[in-house]
Amino acid sequence: MPQVAPFVLVAVLGGVQLTVGSRWGVLSLLAVGPALAAALGGVRLVLAVGAEVLVICALFAVANPAGSEVAYQRALKVSLVGIGVAAAACLARARRDRDLAKVRLIAEAAQKVVLRPVPRQVGPLKLTMRYLSASEEARVGGDLYDVVSTPHCVRLVVGDAEGKGLAALESASAVLGVFREAAHEEGSLAAIVSRIESSLAREFSDEEFVTAIFAEFRADGAEMKLLNCGHPDPLLLGPAGPRFIGSRQEGLPLGLGHLTGEPRSTLTIAFEPGDQVLFYTDGIAEARNRAGEFFPLAESASLRAPQRPETLVDRLCNEMNKHVGHTLDDDVALLLVSRDAAPLTHD
Q: In whole angstroms, what is the distance from residue 214 CA to residue 227 CA?
């Protein structure tokens, strides 16, 4: 166990000092023990190692009574200072960890209010969601997603607000708030986007924007409509293998549509039984390894073998993490929509 290391270090240094006598100032190095304990554990570990240090100092004084008083006093002072500093550092770290834990809980609660759970199935459509955070700190990201079921269709949005932290979360919240109402009230994806744009025009500055892709699935799941607002193209997973869809339909991000004034275009494609479509944020599209190589999403082995939706998404996340080999630079949101395979018929 790592926490044994400070005790072993102090014992070794004490043994060396007892062996060489007072000619060498090894005893002063015992203060390294409490410092190492502070790095590996808490105050209790520091005090336990500190007690061992004091015992070693006492043994040295008894074993070398002649000429050792100055060395003993110097080592004792250094050790006591080291123990005090290490204990104070542990207390400060514990207080910081408690504060960070509270802030993290608040941040996670705020993000959960914005990002509602996605239903596992709506009619013939299975929905599989994964969200990977790029930071263990108390930060929130701008990735957004939601699914709204209406009597006639299923509508969803996946997007990414520019920036990080509370500003990005506020932008994501603004988009989702309008989408959740408009998805029930508007007759088309273009009308939903227009309504979101009108709302954002009152709230966003000229430098704020949100990339997003909107999708609409017919109630029977047989048809899918896409409207892309500057977001990475989704991947259609079918018998022909993974392929990006909608690359010619990409428009400006939300908040910037007024720059051209051109109407948003919608792409309609068939969604066959057994087909799957993967929506994602640029955290996976722009994930790089230490050599600067992007994760080859379309060539991913996880997307080519038939498997359950949950297994597919989990394997894709594992494959991406293995490729990157370090902490993610950006949050990743994945939403896989699968249409149930056609039932077998008997003659």
A: 5
